[in-house]
Amino acid sequence: MAIAFHTQDSNFSLKQKTKHRQWISSCLEAKGFKAGELSLIFTSNTYLLSINREYLNHNYFTDVITFDYSEHEILVGDIFISVDQVKLNADDYTVSFEEELRRVMIHGVLHLMGLNDATDIEKEEMRAGENAALVLWESGIK
Questions:
Q1: Please, is 13 exposed, middle or buried when counting C-beta atoms within 10 Å of its C-beta (0-12, 13-18, 19+)?
Q2: With 60 as the cut, is the pLDDT of residue 133 above it?
């Protein structure tokens, strides 16, 4: 099991890496999943836009793009997160950068667990999953 944090086209450095690994692992285990090789890559709006254009044929900024290579309950994937967009989101939603970053991180992980957010019902399920994960973070992770 490996959960790794990287940066690309950004000087961002995630604080509390060990706690974040434990948190993500706890979220996975609560739903019957395990981490295979998970990489969370923190990047810029420009870099994530280029990924969005190249791989998804979308020409707009986004906060997270998830590439899923999983097989069954062992999750393997790359989660690209735009730190720039997370900062903008945090301002828009009047939450701290750290809270919004964790929401976006777990959003990508939830995609790997099979949750989607295309319909209103799926968006509600995704938001519930994000909120449950944030509560787990706040509780100190057991």
A1: exposed
A2: yes
